[in-house]
């Protein structure tokens, strides 16, 4: 489908533009945008592989996973810096110590990224066009609602005890659901329901803010010798984490009831 190829071409162009910036320096906006675009592209190929099992999405994207992962470590530290700087309740001296440690971590992870690139990792992304996969437009249009409904059922399912791992998986599924709908942005007659998108964005924000605190706490706990400076920040973020997850549960219930009433 030409409309999906337009979307794919746009993503690949943005990914390679951001990667060129990152190869020079770990610029925060480029790091963030690179990861978002890769996630969107991943959602597209996972969607296509669901339609045609012969299309191996993981194999297509494998050359770029090490880059994505190493850049992800840098992104986590960028987020952690902003979270620490937003905590007015902790001492300025403690915040300064933690931010300094985080920036040192960014420099270390960027050196690891450069090593990965130096190990002959790809320095530009190349993926097959949708047209070249041989998947027909008819098959895509027929199976689009099936794939989205399968994802939606997994998102809305809250059977059993929901631990942090399950909430993180739900967050990933929610993003993939959103990204798959976005993939059809250039396709006539495939406009998304704005009410649904608004609810999805609220859920994504809540779960994203929750996960940012989970990751930041893990990073701070890994800093040997900085326990005294880190303890107040960790305590505050653990409380924030619980409140955000509680709000996410409420909004997930609202989202579920909205779908049941459609």
Mean pLDDT: 91
- The SSE order reads HHHHHHHH
Outline type: globular
Structural class: mainly alpha
Describe the biggest sheet?
A: none
Helix content: over 70%
Provide the domain count: 1
What can you see in these coordinates?
The protein is mostly helical. It has a single domain (2-260), classed as CHAD domain. 77% of the residues lie in helices and 0% in strands. The chain is built from 8 helices and no strands. Helix 1 packs antiparallel against helix 2. The longest helix is centred in the C-terminal third of the chain and has 34 residues, at 227-260. The model has no long low-confidence stretch (mean pLDDT 91).
Give the tags:
262 residues, mainly alpha, CHAD domain, 8 helices, 77% helix, globular
How would you concisely characterize the structure shown here?
By secondary structure, the chain is mainly alpha-helical. The protein has eight helices and no strands.
SSE layout and pairing:
Elements (H helix, E strand, L loop, with lengths): L1 H21 L5 H24 L5 H30 L5 H27 L18 H20 L7 H19 L11 H28 L5 H34 L2
Helix pairs in contact: 1-2, 2-3, 2-5, 2-6, 3-4, 3-7, 4-8, 5-6, 6-7, 7-8
């Amino acid at each position: 489908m030409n409309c999906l190829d337009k979307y794919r071409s746009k993503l690949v162009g943005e990914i390679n533009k951001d990667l060129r910036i990152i190869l020079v320096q770990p610029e925060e906006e480029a790091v963030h945008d690179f990861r978002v675009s890769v996630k969107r592209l991943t959602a597209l190929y996972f969607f296509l592989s669901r339609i045609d099992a012969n299309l191996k999405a993981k194999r297509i994207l494998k050359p770029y996973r090490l880059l994505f992962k190493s850049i992800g470590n840098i992104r986590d530290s960028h987020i952690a810096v902003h979270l620490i700087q937003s905590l007015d309740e902790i001492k300025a001296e403690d915040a300064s110590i933690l931010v300094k440690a985080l920036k040192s971590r960014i420099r270390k992870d960027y050196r690891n990224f450069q090593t990965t690139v130096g190990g002959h990792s790809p320095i530009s992304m190349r993926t097959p066009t949708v047209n070249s996969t041989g998947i027909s437009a008819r098959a895509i249009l027929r199976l689009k609602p099936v794939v989205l409904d399968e994802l939606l059922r997994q998102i809305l399912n809250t059977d059993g005890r929901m631990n942090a791992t399950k909430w993180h998986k739900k967050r990933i599924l929610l993003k993939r659901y959103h990204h798959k709908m976005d993939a059809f942005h250039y396709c006539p007659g495939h406009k998304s329901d704005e009410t649904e998108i608004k609810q999805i964005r609220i859920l994504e924000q809540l779960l994203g803010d929750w996960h940012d605190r989970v990751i930041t706490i893990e990073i701070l706990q890994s800093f040997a010798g900085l326990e005294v400076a880190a303890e107040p920040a960790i305590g505050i973020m653990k409380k924030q984490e619980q409140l955000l997850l509680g709000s996410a549960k409420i909004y997930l219930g609202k989202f579920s009831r909205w779908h049941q009433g459609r």
